[in-house]
């Protein structure tokens, strides 16, 4: 299993609620979390098969931005 970490603009609980259906569909339930307390609003994904680009597309489909941590 690998871990993907991305900086997002998912700011609060209601933002997390908005992305949940899409991320659960693409990534899977309980395989991702967003640390809204972190200044980078870091999305952490645990996956066996997904790549970074697929996760970024899923976040964008939900109306948010995700990018590589710098």
From TrEMBL:
Domain of life: Bacteria
SUPFAM superfamilies named in the record: HMA, heavy metal-associated domain (SSF55008)
Gene3D superfamilies assigned to the protein according to its UniProt record, in alphabetical order: 3.30.70.100
Protein name: Copper chaperone CopZ
CDD domains found in the cross-reference section: HMA
Domain HMA: residue ranges: 1-67
Molecular function via GO: metal ion binding
Alphabetized InterPro entries for the sequence: HMA_dom, HMA_dom_sf
């Amino acid at each position: 299993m690998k871990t993907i970490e991305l900086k997002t603009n998912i700011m609060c609980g209601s933002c997390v609620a908005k992305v949940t259906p899409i991320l659960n569909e693409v990534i899977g339930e309980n395989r991702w979390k967003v640390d809204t307390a972190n200044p980078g609003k870091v999305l952490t994904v645990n996956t066996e098969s997904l790549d970074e680009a697929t996760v970024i597309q899923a976040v964008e489909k939900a109306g948010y931005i995700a990018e590589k941590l710098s």
